Amino acid sequence: MDIGKVPVEILQKHIFSKSKTSKNILLFPNIGEDCAAVDIEGEIAVLTMDPITAGDSMSGFLSVIVACNDLAAAGAQPLGILTTVLLPPGSGEDEFAHILTQIRDACNKLNIHLLGGHSEVTTAVTRPLIVSTGFGRVKKEFLVSTGGAKPGDKIVITKTIGLEGIFILYNKYKEKLKDILNSHEEKEIESFVEKLSVVKEGMIAREYASSMHDITEGGLFGAIYEVCRASSKGAVIYENMINLSSAVQKVCAFFNLNPYKLISSGSMLITTNRADELVKKLWRNGIECCVVGEIMERPNIEFISKSGEIIYINELPIDEIYKVV
What we know:
alpha+beta, CATH 3.30.1330.10, Phosphoribosyl-aminoimidazole Synthetase, Chain A, domain 2, 2 domains, six-stranded mixed β-sheet, 26% strand, HypE, AIR synthase related protein domain protein, PurM-like_C_sf, PurM-like_N_sf
């Protein structure tokens, strides 16, 4: 198999088609469904798990953020995480301490608890691998699934595409990039770390959303593919409606990357039939957002470029970040 996510067809064969049902389990393993949800006497416990494989110096921080983002995309308020840290032979205490400091800082930022975990040095990995299990809760009426998108829903995206990917690349290749970025753009990318959480918009949007998905591996193309596959619907997205900062454009051009296939934690994809209300509320709460397209009954997923070219999204893309990290 290629680097990146395991293909949907293989997951369907070995996992999704074999899941057992239960009246107390409201969200099961499915395409693009990042959380499980269990009904516990009227309130829903929501759980998720995420690995960090390309976070480099920010892996500890990102391990908390991405797990909590998955919870927020299900409408759940994060409460805590369990974290496994696997280090390759030769790792020092300083490296371990750096990771744990970042994990604690991220937990404090989101006002959640580090509930436990596991750590070891092992020959099974060649660089640090961090896997976090997130735990949250939500009232049943606010639980949101990835597969709830309806024809006619508008597609809303928060912030700018490429936040996480560009932040990782900038921190890894700062010296290479200093000649193409001006001081304003450097400061903008450094500020991305404050925008990587989507918990705030998730708590707002859950009242309006038919589906939500944080834009992670595979970028915007990956997120809309998973939403449409999970919902058995299609979509049309217009490039000229997408917010893409000049800093993101410059870094992607430098590395010859497609920004729409780049990991983008910090951006949430939301489908809703109340887009005007949602957009106004997000902006009032200081969250940039824009409508970029619409969910369709027909199965095609179409990306309309600025030149008018129609690009069909027929599979889950390999994330662009793997070309350079």
